[in-house]
Design a protein that fits this description.
Length: 779
């Protein structure tokens, strides 16, 4: 094409980035790789080929790790960890800075290698993946530096197993490795089998930085290697990938005591109001769904447009799609590169071809043969259609319309996922009204797919749990430094069941603000230490759990009350309990056969006052993201929290769970102490006289072991905690895998309810979800 012809057509010419340097690096390694274990590359083992999806060319041969490799990597990480932690934050910060600088120095090599291996446009790897990966190491170098002063009392978890996907290979590595190392952990990381090359180049960088041996270990291979890491002697698993595999990992780690964070799939809504800047919103969609060929967990893959502008919006969108350039990912003018692998291409095709609803538009620009898929828009789908619900993980946008803001929220939340959402409106009041109503860990206003190391990222519902990035992300790589003691079982006192005595009192359950008989009508006798009958306590069953959850769901207005009001109610509860302190203390002494009743009541009153104090002070943060704007890391209630309360301190245990849960705006379904349940009944009246709205607190009594599975697997419960002495941690974590709800279980470890560990930030964190709302500035 001549210059004058180019001026005439304004066509882009090819501007391919050179692959020479990356190819030379691969050649230097002999184009074959072992694993990076204990600071050395191992000899190549049985392996598999990794290809450039854009051309099908074999780039290198990688090794499939066996159990001996995984064991060696875990052992190396274990050996290295104490010394790495002892090096101290500032010592570790030096290494993290060095890694960041080396990533920066080699950014072009990393970007080209990433594009060759993954198929993503070089513009993206060069301008987004690699700079963000560097930013993560710089940011977390700072976190290491500040750890001792800003996170007193927190220590590393130990060895972290990290399993990452193929869509952002180096970036996901950085998200996982940087915070783990900063906090004094060592890691065993497995990159995805399609895209391991930048992880192996990173291993080279670790050597160049002089990182102590064993701090970072990288093993390659498929899901079987992932499974080995999950079952290895590690202290934490951090996983990003499909919901299906995330669920398997939740089940596999249940009851193991391993910490777990899961960042899974999504079907994120992209909501355009009729007062939006339409051209910007169209441009935003290019980033939302065609960025990385739509292979993005938080892709804005579900377009919801307000009815009045829908046709105009679709017309502009189709025109924009038709101008998109698909092809050689190394070409700097390319918008859409290759799909990561033919298997993924098939998955996209099958899902799209199965659909017969709506109207499909494919970008008019030529789409090369091979592992490419054109940008696609499917309009006119109903909210329930399969393509509106299933994650496609390709460049396919599905669309529907809405009329009112509340309908937009309803459609947006009609999904099993909850990762991200985008809102376009020129009316900031509308946008900020909608953001809290969306079930999503991240909400972008008038922009999309914005990320930063300082802004927490993570999901709700089946998009997983845990946050990566910012101060909140560090919680997932540290724990409180408390000497853990095994929990002693607490058993109910026995009496003479054969000789029934006169019943002093018959307690009930507390559901929806009313005392209720148990559904099954069953009771159990409760005796004192001397075997004398004190009363009868109801044995709740699964139906009672369902009723309590329903009542709790009905009380959702509690989440919308002001923190000031919640504080007032907690103070009132404290006062009313205090007024009856003597009576409660005697009751506790009689039930437990102890003499600590008065101390326990005093501590319970104090705890209510503590959480009344916290109710309006456990704030989010404004994070300093590098753009003109802010990201607000808001703390929201989780929703309905189910909890098995401690057995050993019947009143204090109940209050220690109830108070943080309701202080943060959640509703509670609590199962009181299994051994000493009657104290719950005493509390009902205190709740009644303290203005706690019906349904906010629901209390059941009965067997923890029997109720745990129902509570854990209930689809309308957002989080489950257990401080029971019954051995139910595994049951709860397994049961929670279905809806991937958050869990907090004791794994047989004791908590000192009278002491400072019985309250505080750990409870507040567990009772809240972080939602990051990005608000750009601009007139
Ligand atoms: P995947 O979830 O199978 O793979 C992610 C990582 O997990 C890889 O490193 C893989 O080797 C490993 N893995 C696989 N099975 C494992 C197991 N049983 N235990 C431990 N680790 C295991 O995702 P895949 O098969 O590559 O893609 C399938 C679908 O998953 C995609 O079509 C997409 O819908 C979704 N996906 C979502 C991602 C996200 O970021 N949310 C990322 C990648 C895929």
């Amino acid at each position: 094409m001549s210059v004058s012809e180019i001026f005439e057509s304004m066509e882009y010419g090819p501007a391919a980035e050179s692959a020479a340097e990356a190819k030379a690096w691969l050649a230097e390694q002999g184009s074959t790789f072992g694993h990076f274990i204990d600071g050395e590359m191992t000899a190549r083992g049985d392996g598999f080929e990794t290809r450039n999806p854009a051309t099908g060319e074999v780039l290198a041969t990688l090794s499939q790790a066996g159990s001996a490799d995984v064991d060696a990597a875990v052992a190396a990480a274990r050996r290295a960890q104490p010394k790495w932690a002892k090096l101290g934050g500032p010592g570790r910060a030096r290494f993290l800075y060095a890694l960041a600088r080396l990533l920066q120095k080699h950014s072009r090599l990393f970007a080209v290698l990433e594009t060759l291996d993954n198929g993503k446009p070089i513009r993206e790897s060069r301008d987004i993946d690699i700079p963000l990966a560097q930013r993560h190491f710089y940011y977390h170098a700072g976190m290491a530096q500040l750890m001792e002063s800003e996170l007193p009392g927190r220590v590393a978890l130990g060895v972290c197993g990290q399993i990452i996907p193929w869509n952002f290979p180096l970036l996901m590595l950085a998200w996982k490795v940087a915070p783990a190392l900063a906090m004094g952990n060592t890691v065993v990381l497995k990159p995805a089998e399609y895209t391991s090359l930048t992880a192996l180049l990173f291993a080279d960088i670790c050597r160049q930085a002089g990182l102590p041996k064993g701090v970072v270990n990288i093993v390659t291979g498929d899901g079987a290697v992932g499974e080995m890491i999950v079952s290895a002697e590690v202290d934490k698993i951090a996983f990003t990938g499909s919901t299906e595999v995330g669920r398997k990992i939740r089940e596999a780690t249940a009851g193991s005591g391993k910490a777990l964070t899961l960042e899974l799939g999504g079907k994120s809504p992209y909501i355009v109001f009729e007062d939006a800047d339409i051209d910007s919103a169209v441009e935003g969609l290019v980033d939302a769904i065609w960025f990385n060929q739509g292979q993005v967990c938080c892709a804005g893959s579900r377009l919801l447009v307000q009815e009045g502008i829908a046709e105009r919006f679709y017309a502009k969108l189709r025109a924009r799609m038709d101008g998109m350039r698909i092809g050689n990912p190394l070409d700097k003018c390319i918008d859409v590169g290759a799909i990561v692998d033919p298997a993924q291409l098939d998955r996209i095709r099958v899902l799209v071809d199965r659909n017969s609803e709506g109207e499909t538009h494919r970008a008019a620009t030529p789409c090369p043969e091979g592992c490419f898929y054109p940008p696609t828009l499917i309009t006119g789908l109903s909210p329930a259609s399969a393509l509106m619900q299933e994650e496609i993980f390709g460049p396919v946008l599905v669309a529907t319309t809405f009329r009112t803001p509340s309908e937009a929220v309803e459609i947006a939340n009609n999904t099993r996922y909850g990762l991200a959402a985008t809102v376009w409106s020129e009316n900031i009041n509308v946008a900020l009204d909608i953001a809290p109503k969306l079930v999503a860990g991240v909400v972008w206003i008038n922009g999309t797919n914005m990320f930063d190391a300082s802004a927490p990222f993570g999901g709700m519902r089946e998009s997983g749990f845990g946050r990566e990035g910012g101060w909140d992300g560090l919680l997932a790589y540290t724990r409180e430094d408390v000497g853990a003691k095994a929990l002693k079982p607490v058993k109910a006192f026995k009496g003479d069941e054969a000789n029934p005595q006169a019943v002093d009192r018959t307690a009930k359950l507390y559901i929806g603000g009313k005392q209720a008989r148990p559904d099954g009508g069953y009771m159990r006798n409760v005796y004192d230490k001397a075997g004398k009958l004190i009363g009868q306590s109801p044995l709740a069953n699964r139906k009672d759990i369902r009723n309590a959850v329903e009542a709790a769901r009905g009380a959702k207005a509690w989440a919308g009350t002001t923190a000031h009001l919640r504080a007032q109610i907690l103070y009132y509860l404290g006062e009313n309990l205090s007024a009856r302190a003597g009576e409660f203390a005697r009751s506790i002494d009689r039930m437990t056969g102890g003499r600590d009743g008065a101390r326990e009541v005093d501590a319970a009153v104090n705890r209510l006052f503590t959480y009344a104090a916290w109710a309006d002070k456990y704030e989010g943060r404004v994070t300093q993201v590098p753009m003109r704007g802010v990201a607000l890391a808001l703390r929201e209630p989780c929703g309905v929290i189910g909890a098995l309360c401690p057995d050993e301190a019947p009143l204090l245990g109940l209050i220690s769970v109830l108070a943080p849960v309701i202080a943060m705006g959640n509703r509670a379904v609590l199962v009181a102490s299994d051994a000493f349940p009657l104290i719950a009944a005493d509390l009902y009246q205190v709740l009644d006289t303290s203005d706690v709205p019906g349904g906010v607190v629901n209390i059941l009594t009965g067997s923890h072991a029997e109720l745990a599975p129902t509570l854990a697997s209930h689809m309308d419960v957002e989080a489950v905690w257990s401080f029971s002495t019954a051995d139910v941690s595994a049951v709860i974590e397994k049961g929670a895998a279905g809806s991937l709800k958050r869990t907090w279980v004791n794994n047989g470890m004791a908590c000192d309810w009278m002491g400072p560990t019985g309250e505080g930030r750990a409870f507040l964190d567990a009772a809240t979800e972080v939602k990051t709302v990005w608000v750009p500035y601009g007139a």
